[in-house]
Specification:
The chain has 1 helix and 13 strands; from the N terminus they run αβββββββββββββ. It is mostly beta strands. The strands form 2 sheets. The protein has an 8-stranded antiparallel β-barrel. A two-stranded antiparallel sheet has the order 6-9. The chain starts with a helix and ends with a strand.
Length: 162
Amino acid sequence: MVTPSASRSSEIALRCRAEGTEVTLRAKTMVLDFVGECRLERGSNTLRLTGFKLVAELPDAGGAEDGGTVELEQAGTVTARPQGGGRVAYDLMVPLSATVTQPGGLIQLDASAPARWRVTTAAFPPQGEFELTGDTIDFVLPESPESATLVVRDLSLHMAAG
């Protein structure tokens, strides 16, 4: 038998940002500020990341491959189980895709492996901010998965309600 409280879930849209993220696009390394939205849903024993989209402006130095945007987007639903403790920690494995839009065109990329984050929070909806800290994410062309076109390092995502 399912009790009403066990079947309830809460969904919330949060502002997300990842400032000062080091990115290498092709052979050019730069620091970008990503902003966007994350959607979370919490059930009785799970946390689901149901939507994730961040966009950063590329610097424009006047070259053919300068300027434009990098968009990181979730490529599937992610469910995490609590890891225990007074403040609950959730481990997330997030499949991502990236779209690089520049004056010369658009490139669609896939992460070579899911991004890994740990979320620690005591409340839902989150009170104030909480942080997901990840590691290096390599994005590759689907037809050329052996070499990374875009590398995102230490994407530290800050979420805030409202």
